[in-house]
Amino acid sequence: MEDPRERMTASVSVGELERRWKLTREIMREKGVDFLIMRQDEEYLGGYVRWFTDIPANHSYPFTVIFPLDDEMTLIGVGGFPPQESYYPPKWAVHGVKRRLCAPYFPSFHFTSTMDAE
Q1: Sign of CA pseudo-dihedral 16, 17, 20, 23
Q2: Kind of pairing, strands 73-78 and 97-103?
Q3: pTM of this prediction?
Q4: Over the stretch 50-78, which tens digit does the pLDDT of each residue have?
């Protein structure tokens, strides 16, 4: 079977992602910050999730990323109730992510607004 990573044509290299994470963690240590939390629900504006993970949020399906000072990231996407593991993006496509979780939240459904944080 073909390696699916070979079909990705515009991805950021693992070396570049590691450089970004290292620089970010140096600044976090200087400023006394333990975690960064970022959220994105579309691919054209607000590219923090893409900058840290190389995963875009497409078609208004949100992603939340927790970037800790001394560990790998947690990525939260749309799906079933926690603690269910997310199936998207697939493990082979994500670097530096320790946990992939999902929650049933969607920005245009007001009744799901608290589910992102729960």
Answers
A1: negative
A2: parallel
A3: 0.77
A4: 889 888 776 667 888 999 999 999 988 87
